Hints:
The structure holds two protein chains of two kinds.
Chain A (H helix, E strand, L loop, with lengths): L15 H7 L1 H4 L5 H16 L11 E6 L11 H7 L3 E5 L6 E7 L17 H18 L3 E7 L3 E8 L3 H10 L8 H10 L6 E6 L5 H13 L3 E8 L1 H5 L6 E5 L5 E4 L1 H25 L3 E6 L4 H18 L1
Parallel strand pairs in A: 3-4, 3-6, 6-7, 7-10
Antiparallel strand pairs in A: 1-2, 4-5, 8-9
Chain B lengths: L1 E2 L12 H12 L2 E5 L3 H5 L2 H29 L2 E3 L10 E9 L9 H14 L6 E7 L3 E8 L3 H8 L10 H16 L6 E9 L18 E7 L9 E10 L9 E12 L5 E10 L2 E11 L2 E5 L3 E4 L4 E7 L9 E6 L4 E8 L7 H8 L5 E8 L5 H4 L4 E5 L6 H12 L3 E5 L16 E13 L1 E2 L21 E7 L5 E2 L7 H6 L3 E3 L7 E7 L4 E8 L2 E6 L14 H14 L9 E2 L4 E4 L7 E6 L5 E4 L9 E2 L2 E4 L5 E6 L9 E6 L12 H8 L3 H7 L9 E2 L1 H21 L10
Parallel strand pairs in B: 4-5, 4-7, 7-8, 17-18, 17-19, 19-20, 20-28, 29-36
Antiparallel strand pairs in B: 1-3, 3-37, 5-6, 9-10, 10-13, 10-14, 11-12, 11-15, 15-16, 21-23, 22-26, 24-25, 25-26, 26-27, 27-28, 30-34, 31-32, 31-35, 33-34, 35-36
Amino acid sequence: MTVASPSPRPRQGATTRIDRYLDPRVLGRIGNLQVLAKTVVEGFVSGLHRSPFLGRSMDFAEYRSYLPGDDIRQIDWKLYSRSDRYYVKQFEGDTNTNLTVLMDASASMAYGGSDTTGNPSKIEYAKYLAASLGYLTQKQRDRIGLMVLGNGIRKVVPNGAKQLQTILVELDATRAEGELDLDPVLAQIAGGIRRRGLIALLSDLYEPSDQILRAVSKLQVRGADVVVFHILDPTEVALPFSDTVELEDLESGGRMAIEPEVLRDRYQERIQRHIAEVKDGLVRAGADYHLTMTDEPLDQSLHRYLSTRLWSMKSR
Amino acid sequence: MSFLAPFFLFAGLAIAVPILVHLRRRKTKERFAFPSLMFLEEVPHATIKRRRLRDLLLLALRSLAVLLLALAFAQPALRSGFATTGEPTTEVFILVDRSASMTIGDRWNRAKELVQTHVQSLGPGDAVTLALFDETVELPLISVTDVAQASRVLDETEPRDRRTLLASSLRVIRPMILDLLGDPLRPSSADVVIVSDFQRNSALDLDEVRLPAGAKLTLLSVGEPSTDPNRWVRDVELHRGAGPNASPGRERVRVSATLGQEDAVLEGRVRVSLWLDGREMESKTVTVTGRSTAIAFEPIALDAERVSKGEVRVEPDYFADDDVFYFTASAADALTVLVVEGRREGAGLFVQRALESLEAPRYRVERTRRGEITTADLQGKHVVVLQDAGSVQGSSAAALQTFVEAGGGVLVAYGRESIGTRLPAWLDLRANDDVKQSRSGIRLVSVARDHPVFRTLDGGDWGSAPFFRHFELNASSSAPAQAPTANPAQSSEQGGEQNGAQGGTQSAVLARFDNGDVALAERRLGEGRVIAVASTLDTDWNDFPRQGVFLGWLDRSMQYLGVFRASEDSYTVGQPSLVEVSRDRSLEWVLQPSDGEATHLRLDGQDEGDTAVGDEVLLNFEVAGHNSLRPPGTDVSSGRWFAANLDRSESELMIADLAVLEAQLKPDLEERAVTAGLNPDLPPRSFWWLVLYALLLLLVSEGFIASRLPARTQLSRS
């Protein structure tokens, strides 16, 4: 197959070093997810010139009455001397957030890879992204969890402040296989939500747009803020094949011989319409949507996540 | 079905080429994993299938194209009646004679009745092709099913003043019959019906126009033998110099005529008369014996300023069209020649006497001794002959140069007077002053026989005359003469070798001696011509004037140098005739018989049958009689008159033996044997052209379908 290889997208205002470390094609050579996640996040953070403890806000939020079980070190003794009541100071950063990464590991996510398109496969990219999100989340002392989806819910790593290592191990072991039907799977996940939090869905979303919206809405009903990373390889959007080819569906195994010259325009029109429908539907429903190509630097995806998280905290 | 060239069927194996190409392309199709076919399946799948179908369709079309091409080259042929559609029909080719002899009695009316009777017997669906023929053919109806049209066309047709030539019509319809019988999609039979008086001499050259095998022939004759013989005026001749001229500008001419009759055995008396400008000049009764009889009339005086319309009439008989012979006559134009001789007395006398002995054209010759040649001397002269004239210099040379440049001709003959004397450079073609001598004499060889001065003298013995002394002429190049001339027709006709530069120094070799020296040479100057002879024109240095060809050569040389063309006394209807007209006056002309309708002509060479060259045009006279050619808007009497007569071969009214004629026209046994392999009666119907049509259609379709496919684009790996 001959594909048009997209050139790495330049990032405005970033340093060459950051560029290099955030380029998914470079990250693919690191191999170790932990190192990768650390590289991404540290590089990303230093690029922002922000504190690594971003999110642990030292800003005063409110006083509340002391309740049994509260740490007595958090009692405001000065206020006690004035009011003779026990009050506990609350800060913004003290409100831990749950981030649950739902990673699509169906067979369609295996598409791509440096041997065919020059970019990491979608599942690899999703792993980088999930690891980076996890590392960043742990840095912010939020709770991180992971669910690997494919043929239902394949793996679950419950949310916790010290789950990153487990998550990274699970991510490393995850292979793209099986099929995924989002609606029942997300319905099942929504039924298990006990605490409001942020849910990041990493998927190529090969389902009808109305089903996707319906599935996501079930998460939102349970009070979750949803950010969807729609991960696609550039070649599956552009369909750059040059001659008659036979394509095999990675999930269903179905085959189809096509004349790309004949179909390309209509195919591109159809997939762009699908992207637009999903994006519009999610945004209208209050979710956050990011179309993420596997040739995009990871910091852009992190930036989107961070924006969504801040917005989520402020709106709470 | 059989094939006339079955070997080409092997070319059909080339069908493997597009199939192999197709299969090879199929094998190269690669398989790739793709995340989901969801959106591809949503694209109208028919497109892909259609493309696949189109590929197969293109393969089929291209394979079929190869097969059809091989099939066409193999020339498939069908037996008649095989693989054809529709009911068999008959195409009747009716050939009706409309020559002059059809005016005899009620032949024309009977011919029309015969045609009408025949077409009424035709069945529905039968078609008629009508050919009106004499020596030419006209096809007013081609394959019409409304057969009644044939009678209507004949009602509007009249016989013409033309002779009969049956072969002309058969030559036209033969390929039509072949096409008809060879058409595999149209089962037809061809009936050929010839309605004519079947004159014996109309059945010429029939061997080349035998009817194709399968055509049915019917001969319907309207001719009948007559007890009275047909007599006609075969020819008229004008004999000039028939006596002393009555007055200047007039000429006495004796008219003689030749009478013809069909039966050589018969002898009878017939009255013959000579008419001039509507007046009977003489009438006499003569005894006609044998095939032809010559008679002469008393001399008549003709005017040089006007053309008289003459007729010789024989007593009318049952075929009137050949009883009158039309001619025109006028006092002949004379060529005026000035013969200049030198100190040798009588040097020009031989030339003068020779020219004066000629009749057509007549020559008016003046002879003068060497001296001053003035412009007045050259006034009205056509040719100047410098016969051993010696030196011509000064004002004489200037006057002569002006004369030649204006179109006059000069014949220069060198002799003893030329030794040590000079002529102007434009006139002198000698290489040097040396006289070459030969005791036994040298002979003329290498005569340019296609040059006008030698043409029609082919039988002449040019090499018999010895030349004992001569000058060497310096025109020796071998290039053909292409000198500029006022008359392109004549310049293009010239032969000879050419030498020198353009204008006054260009010269061409017309004849050489056997030692290689140039004997005759020609040079152009302005509009005029100069011919130089290396020796004398009397017997002083050679014996050429004693030869029989000398007078003819001298006559033609004078006409050529004087640009003279004799007018014809009469022309033949239907035969292209070269006539001289002054086209400077007009390109539009009117040709009108004295008792007929005018025809407008544009004599610029653009119309069919009109070939205009210089002041001469090729005309076809359509009507026998006196024809006036004049510019439009002028009176008939002001035109120039030409006489045209019916071709006298039409006067032979003997009827051919129809059985013999039928045998002549039917296909010969050899042709039958060739076609017997397929059908004993009909030729094989090769329909290779139909296959080619199908191939063409198929290629157009293939091109259309192929053009609808998008061009393949190849993306490169960066």
